[in-house]
Amino acid sequence: MSARWLNAKGIFQWRPEYFHLDQVTEFMADGAHVYLAYWNDAVVGTYTITWSDPLIWKELDSPDAGYIHRFAVHRDYEGQGLGGHLLHAAEEQIRQEGKTLVRLDCMADNARLNQYYREMGYAYIRRLDAADWSASLYEKR
């Protein structure tokens, strides 16, 4: 649902066809932790934590970091502070693993999401430009 909503706004960070159960199972087999947030028996948010991300972070990939991916809040619960609660939960889980850095990325042209991560205390590290997309990289100590 979040992928379709982003695509409708002209932001192609995620494609709906990239989200399927086999991919989630593969992430988990590779050591990723996948989380779902429930409220009144409905899934209202999700995120995945990985312990390495050389594809995006390249030479900055660090064993001292946990990487938040696929962070999303159901549109029906937007504006209720749920995103902040989920980010804080992910940060705490990463700290409990002994990591000192929390990292995430988003599409460079998604101005609102870039602003949100800065508001949540994340420092901008750099921009990554690929052939058909660009990402902003953020971290929090």
TrEMBL record:
Domain N-acetyltransferase, first and last residues per copy: 1-141
Keyword tags: Acyltransferase, Transferase
Keyword check for DNA repair: no
Highest taxon listed in the record's lineage: Bacteria
Keyword field contains Acyltransferase: yes
Pfam families, per database record: Acetyltransf_1
Name the UniProt record assigns to this protein: GNAT family N-acetyltransferase
